[in-house]
Inverse folding.
């Protein structure tokens, strides 16, 4: 992919409501993710699949500041207030968040028991739920050891990237 096209793609993701994009062409894999107001870009070439899988970036990472919708609004306006309310209601503690957009499932099958319930003790790496995205079932693992204090989503509910799913103590 040409550098100019890469910059156009990064800008398109910055300007959109997307929180992530994966693209592959001729042995080059591109993965863009956006958290709040920053986009992090990782590029993999055919020469470095192992390094990319291990978390290393084959090409330099490019960070582009996304335009902040709230900062463009006048002080005290509704969008700025909504943004401050979102941060004020963000749960505290050990939070397990959704790594992708999809549908949340608490159990491996409709008739099965949920992976975890409030009060259960979990270990780091333990499967806590599934998020289905594009017909793929993605296991959501705990990032922490702890006890499940709250479950923020219902079975079958749509979830967003970075949305809190569980709170552990």
């Amino acid at each position: 992919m040409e550098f100019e096209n890469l910059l156009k793609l990064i800008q398109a993701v910055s300007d959109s409501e997307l929180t992530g994009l994966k693209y592959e062409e001729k042995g080059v894999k591109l993965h863009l993710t956006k958290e709040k107001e920053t986009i992090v870009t990782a590029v993999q070439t055919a020469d470095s699949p192992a390094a990319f899988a291990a978390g290393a970036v084959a090409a330099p990472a490019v960070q582009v500041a996304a335009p902040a919708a709230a900062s463009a609004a006048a002080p005290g306006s509704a969008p700025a207030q909504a943004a401050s309310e979102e941060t004020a209601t963000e749960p505290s503690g050990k939070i397990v968040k959704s790594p992708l957009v999809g549908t949340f499932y608490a159990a491996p099958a409709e008739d099965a028991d949920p992976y975890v319930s409030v009060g259960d003790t979990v270990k780091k790496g333990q499967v806590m739920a599934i998020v289905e995205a594009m017909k793929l079932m993605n296991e959501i693992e705990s990032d922490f050891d702890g006890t499940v204090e709250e479950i923020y989503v219902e079975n079958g509910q749509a979830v967003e990237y970075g949305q809190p799913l569980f709170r552990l103590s």
The chain has two domains: 3-69, 90-168. Residues 24 and 133 are 18 Å apart (CA to CA). Residues 48-88 have pLDDT under 50 and may be disordered. Residues 3-15 form the longest helix (13 residues).
